[in-house]
Amino acid sequence: MRTVIFKGFADQLLTAARISPTALYTGHVWQAHERSVPELESWPARCLHTGLAPAMAMSRKLGGPTLEDFLLARHDLIDLHLTKAIESGAATQVLEIAAGLSPRGCRFVQKYGDDITYIEADLPGMVAQKRKRLQQRLGVCPNHRVEIIDAFAHEGPHSLQALAGSLDPDRGLVVITEGLLNYFDKQAVLGLWQRLGQVLSGFSHGMYLSDLHLSAHNNDPVARAFAAALGVFVRGRVHLHFEQPGEVVTAMQARGLACEVQNPHAFADELPSCAATGASLVRILHASAMHY
After folding, report:
1. What is the pLDDT of residues 48-68, one digit of tens each?
2. What torsion do the CA atoms of 82, 182, 166, 102 make, to the nearest 10 degrees?
3. How far out from the chain centre does Cα 68 lie?
């Protein structure tokens, strides 16, 4: 019995080594706040979350932000927009890029069943792990898939264009990138938006939902220290590509996307998580393809 338990824990540690700290931490935030599914829970993620809990508690005690503040706010607000798109009939296909340990695909397929097609996409290692974890769910739901994507590839079998090409252009498409943009430089992000504009214009309704941190909303001493700590945590630089929302709107419009940059605090009446102190550190991009 002990051998079985040890092997199970060892397998989880090996899996964790292939998943980034941010994916693990974020995954457990969703677990801790009842937004996830049991299959995506792991001991390494729980340990990482527990290890950072004192620092988060201290920040909150001093009136500062926490990682959970903006992680929950961005997740819930993206969910709200996706729900409205599906229930209005505007789009019944979803492509979530860099899905990681996101439970969104499971939750939305459980809620809407065969009425939607949901594709979770990520790099090969993450895809293999997620397929393994969700094997039973995916086996009984052909409209819920986990596929390989290279979001920054210009062409090829794993490009955005290739994956979107497998979908029905008459049913509308929502593309989601949550927790992705600020870990890549500006040129990479602009290139992604260019390809998104081209792909979404080919659907009857094309919507893009994402989160983005702007320098204008992260320039006080507490926020700067928080961003620096986050950079250490993710073992890389956190890029703040734009200062003001207007710059984002202009950049996306030039790439065929009409965008609204939203402060989660504006949705506090609908979503309690959007009232948290740190919710305003992030902005949500709600964009639609421009059809000429």
Report:
1. 666 666 766 676 666 667 788
2. -60
3. 14
